[in-house]
Amino acid sequence: MRTITYSEAIHESIDYNMEKDETVFNLGEDIGVLGGGFRATHDLYEKYGRKRVLDTPLSEIAIVGAAIGAALGGLRPIPEIMYIDFTPGCMDMIVNQMAKIHFMFGGQIKVPMVLRTVCGAAGYNAAQHSQSMYPFFVHTPGLIVVTPSTPYDAKGLLNTSIADDNPVIFMEHKRLYTSKGEVPEEFYTIPFGKADVKREGDDLTIVATHALVHDALALAEEMEKEGTSIEVIDPRTLVPFDKETIFKSVEKTNKLIVADESILSCGMASEISAIVAEEMFDYLDKPIIRVASPNCHCPFSMPLEDAYIPGKEELKEAIAKVL
Amino acid sequence: MQISDKNNIELLRTMKRIRTFDETCQKLFVAGRIPGALHCYTGEEAIATGVCKVLEPSDYILSTHRGHGHLIAKGGEFKYMLAELFGKSTGYCKGMGGSMHLASVKHGILGANGIVGGGICIAAGVGFSIKYQGTDQVVVCFFGDGGISTGFFHEGLNLASIHNAPVVFVCENNLYSISMTSKRATGLDKLSTRAVSYNMPGETVDGNDILAVYESAYNAIERARAGKGPTLLEYITYRWRGHHAGEAGDGLFYREKKELESWKTKDPIRRYQALLLKEGKITEEKIEKMEMDIQQEMDDAIEFANNSPYPKAESIIELSMLKKE
Question: Which CATH architecture has domain B5-309?
Fold first, then answer.
């Protein structure tokens, strides 16, 4: 099978869906002429024109608000917020409007839209361009939250997101855009709420998201040689959340590490740990260990950012605690 | 501007229906029959009535927390509105929304909003979608003088303007955002002057003069429909009641009684009724009959809302995420 990047996979899904459905359009900052900060919409402007790849002013509230309005008016918008760090400026639109309209109006109307945004620390962008604050959206009922870790998952899940009638937060990860993987040329979808067992193992379960999936897989590979068998599970969507696949794994391994780049306190690793602790307490031989960004802001200085980002080192320390 | 005799009567009837609905709701609230927050539109009826009279059924509106008048003027029915205010399953929003989130999508009413100014950017997007799809619809976005100071206003008007979207922004300036006066909040004599920044026409109009409202709204809506872009309309008015129905003494602890009394002499309904009587377009008997019919509609709505069941607890989860069809 051919190999393409995560960014190309996203691009391919948007392109296919725009071709197939006239109501699909994009709006955001520098997504048109420039092709998007991470190239996910490059050349679509030339192909579909400015009406469907709409460069907006620096107006995050209006990007999300107008996407909501366009969805109410019968379109399927794909708004892009350049960095997740810019979403606090339009949080009312996301939390009080986008997520609630279907519910508050008693199910009278759908808000089909996919808000694409970018998370993760990378490239020494410091405290305001490095966050993984999607737990805010997990905390908001009414939103689907998608976190693809591979090009294959990115294309399949974006296809599903664009076709879905619920509002979706599609979380892309900075350190993954140039990562490569096998992706079919044809159209396919991946259902929401279906975790993927990225690697089977018997001694320990690591539930990981985004870039940490790859750190966990690399570590599992290394530790296999030392005789430790690690199972790596990627939830792929945080809402809806597939707890069954994780429960099944914990039943087998009796040990769990949860690794996610959002901040430790009230972060996704904490939420997943709580879900498992509540229902699977009897199956756990050791306390659940969380691997997450520390409870502080992302620093600028190069060695400090490297130390800040949770990765293989932190996973190793966690493994040492449970094995 | 020429308005047909039939429409003259309709304008009066709609204003009276709004007055009856909200004054009844105020009483029901005080009597403990309506829970939560309730914001009455009494005194401001000419704006919703005049603006919505210009609209076609296929046009859209976005409303505010003080939105009952907008819904009624755009075709909302008393009984489903009141059932919603009672939290009943037969309400427009199945009891999930209440007064501040009333919506009736089939009437083009894309929702009241509990967030002041929250509908402004959404309206810009609805306008964009109309243009995108090439229909000749128009969207009217209502907001108050409080909404004009939000960031939503700036981003929404700018976006609508650069896309020449068919949106009419209607600022209902009732002079107070809760206790803060619009003059203190903006430093402006006319809020419509802000339109200049967004390269669109702006007009300030007497919001208690139904004919002036109708004419200005007609011009702005037809302009939008003709593809000439958005307009900002400011209607000066006054709310007779407090910010919300539970506010003691109709808010007279931050505004003067004589101010309220002077605005009551500018009652948009009485003004218009006197004009129609003077011009012989309606008779006292017909007005009496109109009022009796409206009261009957109100009484029927109360009975309907009273007799309706509360929603089942399961519906909270059912509506939390849209099911696949």
Answer: 3-Layer(aba) Sandwich (3.40)
